Amino acid sequence: MKIERAGAEVFDRQDPLSGFSGRFLPLDRGAVYLDGHSLGRPTARALARVSQLIGIDWSGDLVRAWDHWADLPFEVGDRIGALLGARPGEVVVGDSTSVQLYKVVCGVVRAAGIADPVLAVAADEFPTDRYVVQGIADAVGGRVATFEVASGEGVDPERLDTFLETTGATTAVLAAVDFRSGARTDVRACNEVAARRGTTIVWDLSHAAGVVPVALGSDGVEAAVGCTYKYLHGGPGSPAFAYVRSDRQQAWRQPIWGWWGQRDRFAQRDRFAQRDRFAMGADYAPDDRMRQYAVGTPPVVQLALVDEGVAVVEAAGIDAIDQKRSLLTGFALDLIEDRLDWLGARIETPRESGRRGGHVCFTHSEASRLCLAARDRGVVTDVRPPDGLRLGLAPLTTSFVDVWDAIDVFTRLLASGAHLGHPLDGGRVT
Ligand SMILES: Cc1ncc(COP(=O)(O)O)c(C=O)c1O
After folding, report:
1. Would residue 204 show up in a list of annotated catalytic residues for this protein?
2. Beta bridge partners of 93
3. Catalytic residue among 79, 184, 369, 390
4. Ligand 1 atom 5: the closest Cα is on which residue?
């Protein structure tokens, strides 16, 4: 079946979210941004917000502005929590995903009170997740057990069950959406298995938050982390979120003792109240709610940008975003099959919509040269070694015509061999 550009134009006309691209800063004319997905596009409100924050709040109110800045990690956390099916007071924003993961996993491992704990992580998991797990095992005298996940598939709950039974892992770190193939894992099914084995899964939601429905509460998630710079449009280096279910917050003590996590002598039922920060007490006593994960001074400017990104996601609604994600990724897979299969591209992403996230991936022996040559022609995608080319299809900023144009550029490059002359420059495919 031949898919024409006019067909993509029809899909764009029928797209209820097409107007949302106007809520983001425009791209250069002719540019197609399908990074896969390391960095979402900036919201149009980002500039005004930063200008207000610096020009009015900071320069006008100076240090007094902390009266309203101090709550941002919890306010933005609650809004991200609402998008992910958490309750108020279960999510806080600050630090990088790596650091949040360290804090959460340490909390789980230490609470288990096992002398030589086994920490499980998927063998092909995003590098920082594996390194953090290795680092914690090293720090606590534990051992890492790696779990194999079939290429292009999510975690198989039955195989996970056998693995947990064999290893007796205290905790497992798994991604809800695989960073390479885009395969989605059945979070609820894995949690059910883990609960039977007495294991806590700490979920990495970096490639899921803001693009697929996540139901932290009803899917039995005890702990999760995720970044905000992908589908939540928080910008480069924006802080990550950590989620710990309410009934675990008191028992799971994170290891970094900081003044923003200190218990408040005057604590009220209002979880934002922390009037005691400047009491400068001699010893640390952790807050027994999510506040203990705040640790130190929050990155206010980036939090404000996350706030703006989350606002656009809220306005669109996660169900509408998911519907468009399904159509866009399906359209991309059809096009890849139709136009790139005979040129050597092999699809890595599951065909079933519910089993994939917001990006698609195909492998090709010349993926890096292809990606770089396409960038020279205005089409931004990325490569994950050794040969996976990813296209990130952020539903609020990507059109069907973008997808068609990108695949058209790939088709022309592969058919002509024009990409083969492109010098390899590893740094540029990030
Ligand atoms: C699945 C996953 N986890 C973690 C990270 C990055 O963590 P950090 O925010 O610490 O750089 C990424 C970055 O792309 C990711 O894709």
Report:
1. yes
2. 241
3. 390
4. 97
Cβ atoms < 10 Å from Cβ of 280: 8
- Residue with CA at minimum distance from ligand 1 atom 8: 97
Q: Tell me the two tokens of residue 421.
A: 């002359």
Question: pTM here?
Answer: 0.96
Asked if 299 and 339 sit in the same domain, the reply is no
Span 118-139, average pLDDT = 97
148 and 264 share one domain: yes
Q: Say if strands 346-347 and 32-33 run parallel, antiparallel, or are unpaired.
A: unpaired
129 CA distance to ligand 1 middle (Å):
8
Please say if 229 is a catalytic residue: yes
Q: Is 289 a catalytic residue?
A: no
Number of Cβ within 10 Å of residue 393's Cβ equals 29
pLDDT at 269 over 50: no
Residue 371 contacts by C-beta under 8 Å, 6 or more apart in sequence? 381, 382, 383, 389, 429
What pLDDT does residue 151 have?
86
pLDDT in tens, 374-422: 999 999 999 998 899 999 999 999 999 999 999 999 999 999 999 998 8
Largest CA distance in the chain: 72
Nearest to 324 by CA among 242, 409, 397: 397
Considering the domain architecture, whether residues 208 and 296 belong to the same structural domain is answered as yes
What is the number of the ligand 1 atom nearest to the C-alpha of 99?
A: 10
- Pair 287, 380 in one domain: no
Identify the domain boundary among 288, 311, 334.
311
Ligand 1 interacting residues, C-beta cut-off 6 A: 38, 96-98, 126, 128-129, 175, 179, 204, 206-207, 227, 240
Of all residues in the chain, what percent carry a pLDDT higher than 70?
95
Q: Which backbone phi and psi does 242 adopt, to 5 degrees?
A: -125, 140
Is residue 76 located within the same domain as residue 172?
Answer: yes
